[in-house]
Amino acid sequence: MCENCRRPQSTEDSTLIRYRLRLADLDRHLIEVACSVDRPETPQDFRMPSWIPGSYLLREFARHVVGIEATSSGSATGIGKIGKNCWRCSEPAKELTVTATIYALDQSVRGNWLDRRRAFFNGPAVFLLPDDRGAEPVEFILEAPDDPACADWRVATAMTPVDVDERGFGRYTAQDYDELIDHPVEIGDFASVSFEACGVPHRLVVAGRFHTDLERVAADLARLCETQIEFFGQPAPFDEYLFLGLAVGDGYGGLEHRASSSLIFKRNDLPKPGETGVSQGYASFLGLASHEYFHSWHVKRTRPEAFSPYRLDRRNQTRLLWVFEGITSYYQELMVLRSGLVDAKAWRRRVGEQLSRVYRTPGRFRQSISDSSFDAWDVLYKPNPNSPNASVSYYSKGMLTALALDLTLRRSSDAGASLDDVVRELWLRYGARDIGVPEDGFEALTIELGGAGLQSFFLRAVRGTEDLDLGALLAEFGIALRFRAARDAGDRGGTATSQDQAPLTLGASFRPAAEGLELLTVFDGGPAQRAGFNPGDVVVAIDRLKVNDRNLKARLERFDAGERVTAAAFRGDELLEFALELDHAPADTCYLEFDPDADAAALARRRAWLGE
């Protein structure tokens, strides 16, 4: 929260901050959290974080506080808000307790949720911090709900238990505030399965409605986790690990923590009982789990100097987010492959999908991944209709850069280094020693291990905006990078197609509207932009025939590239007509193929890389 929150304290000066959390009202979605401190300052301020580590947006969790009160030595005392996330008790006595009531109906990995089916909360979104007390030890008491609807509810968290009942309610402890807020808590009647990876106890908890073979999922996760532990080297940086999963109809996302991760995924992505093989949906689930688990080393412990310590009341800007999210996006699929859970064909498909997201983004020519990392707080996490034209994701472009860097190292490094070596050495020098990575630290280490020739790579790939010659790099490993046009709006890439020529396109992304198609992004230089369409326009007719998401392709197939047709669209409540000159969809969708004519040297490099 502030520079002094992590200051060391002597044993004689050590005090204890006590928190108590109650699920106050299931139907009104209210959580009640009390924070008690001895020897408060006069005045004593309490603050709530503005963001949660791992998700780089000021979410201002204080906006969910719907009530707050204070008692001092057993009597009510005044408390008032003095800032966006700060409350002040002006005249506390020897002992002070501040109780906040928090609205909890955010079904994401970042916030809080409470209803009659389950409860879930994240520390930054519920725990107030007394100013300058962040380094003090913490006691946390989680009260069992007295509502009969919660009789079967249990607790799942990686927080250290001290005195809990058989369901997990009771007293926990943390060495300081940072540790307290880094253990999300799932409460409900969830499913659970345990397994070991390299001797470390692991557990998978899944809430929500689903139908799967959890033992099979646990066995697959065990292989994946062992592959990553062995990659970084034993012992693992945690004594036990917890996957907290929520199965939903449609959703995807994750957030890493020091000994756990929160995952949201489609229930149908889990394998059915008796199902063999790995479906596309299950590969997506495994990739999500792989990504968040890799973060246990690479961002939770090996992290930018800008995050050491976290300052949770403001933006913590760094140009290294591509290193921690992009490289993790690269390894999430590589670890699934190296663990033997998928074959090379499935890996190629997943990588092709990731690369397609980059090549479909014109903004890659306008924003570098260094700038994308720095501007994440106000650009990536606050998208607008023009974002694909003006910016690029440090996740997807970072993944492409990590791939290119790994191949460049493997092909030309004088020392025979690879990205594997750089990431492991980064862990040993920084993460394992709890030292923040300076802004030039990753580049300097890569050049140290791979040679001075890599300076030009970082200039072009990290600080520049030109496309890298990824095809030439892949060719030296016996892999061909192919490009084609997207078949339709649902085509994510990663596979070949049998179409003879590229279909016609509007040059815009869209979503179905009640009548027609609502344009989301109008891409630079495309037919829709040349015709004068705006994001938000609802296209209702082409060539004076009604159009929607189901018949658009058939409507366009009646014309040839270069033809002009009349298109009608509503802009607000006004019907407008446009002269639309049609064009072929660009070849911005890619897939990878193994080259059957690759020479022995290329095949040897590929085997060393992919572990075939």
Task: Give the topology.
Layout: E1 17-25, E2 30-38, E3 44-47, E4 65-72, E5 75-77, E6 80-83, E7 86-89, E8 95-103, E9 113-114, E10 118-121, E11 129-130, E12 138-142, E13 154-156, E14 160-164, E15 170-174, H1 177-180, E16 185-188, E17 191-197, E18 200-207, H2 214-232, E19 241-248, E20 253-256, E21 260-266, H3 280-294, H4 321-338, H5 344-359, H6 369-374, H7 387-390, H8 396-412, H9 419-429, H10 441-450, H11 455-461, H12 470-475, E22 479-484, E23 504-505, E24 508-512, E25 517-522, H13 527-531, E26 538-542, E27 545-546, H14 552-556, E28 564-571, E29 574-581, E30 583-584, E31 589-594, H15 600-610
Overall shape: it is: globular
Number of helices: 15
Q: Do you know the CATH topology of the domain at 17-187?
A: Immunoglobulin-like
Query: Helix amount, in percent?
Result: 25-40%
Structural notes for this entry:
By secondary structure, the chain is an alpha+beta fold. Among the domains are: 17-187, Immunoglobulin-like (Sandwich), CATH 2.60.40; 190-282, Neutral Protease Domain 2 (Neutral Protease, domain 2); 504-584, Roll (Pdz3 Domain). It is built from 15 helices and 31 strands. The strands form seven sheets. An eight-stranded mixed sheet has the order 5-4-8-2-1-12-15-14. A hairpin with a 2-residue loop joins β4 (65-72) and β5 (75-77). The longest helix is centred in the middle third of the chain and has 19 residues, at 214-232. Mean pLDDT is 94; it is low at 1-13.
Features:
612 residues; alpha+beta; Immunoglobulin-like; Neutral Protease, domain 2; Pdz3 Domain; six-stranded antiparallel sheet; globular
